[in-house]
Amino acid sequence: MRLRRGARPAAHHPHPATSGTPTVLTGATVVLPTGTSENGRLTIDGTRIAATTPENAQVIDVTDHYVIPGFVDLHNHGGGGASFTSGSVDDILKGIHTHRLHGTTTLVASTVTGDMDSLTHRAGLLSELAEQGEIAGVHFEGPFISPCRKGAHSEALLRDPHPAEVRKLIDAARGRAKMLTLATELPGGLDSVRLLADHGVIAAIGHTDATYEQTVEAIDAGATVATHLFNAMPPLGHRSPGPIAALLEDDRVTVELINDGTHLHPAALQLAFHHAGADRVAFITDAMDAAGFGDGRYWLGPLEVEVADGVARLVEDGTIAGSTLTLDRAFKRAVTVDGLSVEDAVTALSATPARLLGMADTIGSLEPGKDADLLILDSAYELKGVMRRGEWVVGPQLG
Question: Which CATH architecture does the domain made up of 70-356 adopt?
């Protein structure tokens, strides 16, 4: 919830009406799973990408632009001044729309640490939005995390990951729980990982003080994601390598990275890509309310946050408190600052998270039969169009 001062929210872009007429985008550099196609074409028929172009298709010339898949965000707490943890349904929809305007066509809504009653209530509300197709599911970040690595979570509300309480959150999400972040070294951690794996929920290692050996044990038990690798965990050491080494070296693990220039030094990002590769890296926002909204004071769960120059920190001690990142900025930084190829950036922002969510048959790449979730970027990697399920969220701005 907004407290005071800061920029007003940007006006929502109109949703151009769709006529039902098939559309073909021509002349673009199209990033496909099989490689990049220069002077390519892509046809949209209804809500899907089509294999052939009907004779009545509307042609849009996007020469000198890129067409790439819509972004998939695994870890997002809010935006547009709205929180997914505490906001109303209208607030949550506003936050979702804010991120859609920045190219995120699929989003998992993340909670922060709270008491069990509030978390189960929130899980029920978010599951309804998942059932309506507004979000891809629910991610619980906390309360089962280490007080040594709590980050922007309330220490008073932390608890050990007892499997019965983990199960309570899973049940409250009514089949829409996608991921739960926990410190697997805590009492009950390994049993909770096994429970999550048995229920098809991603067990993510994060906000952890685990050793290398404890992390290996958790991966063997079924953990498959590193929550914002490097952040809220012990640093890599040459005698005590800690969780970072274990998470990077194991092909079963996908590592989240927050590529905003604040959470990670470029060398750390390069280290992750060198060891894991784009197929095991998922760029996330870890965004809070201020994303797409502006500097000012906010709440993150029960904790007050000051956002200044786009960086969110707890008022009480200056700890980084999520981000104000949007994935279009993460993409541009990956290519222009970090030196990644467009193809690798697309993989880390679309294909890898889609696969992790078990949704690769419908999203994450531009292939016939998949949802028409796509973005248009200019030669400077600025976002110029957003389509979600065949509808323009941001109509092509090609002038």
Answer: Alpha-Beta Barrel (3.20)
| pLDDT, tens digit (0-9, with 9 covering 90-100), for 270-294 | 999 999 999 999 999 999 999 999 8
- CA dist., res. 40 & res. 147, Å (int): 52
Task: Indicate which residues carry an active-site annotation.
Answer: 286
Q: Are 327 and 74 in contact (CB under 8 A)?
A: no
**pTM recorded for the entire structure:** 0.94
Q: Which CATH class is domain 23-68+365-394?
A: mainly beta
Q: How many other CB atoms sit within 10 Å of the CB of residue 299?
A: 17
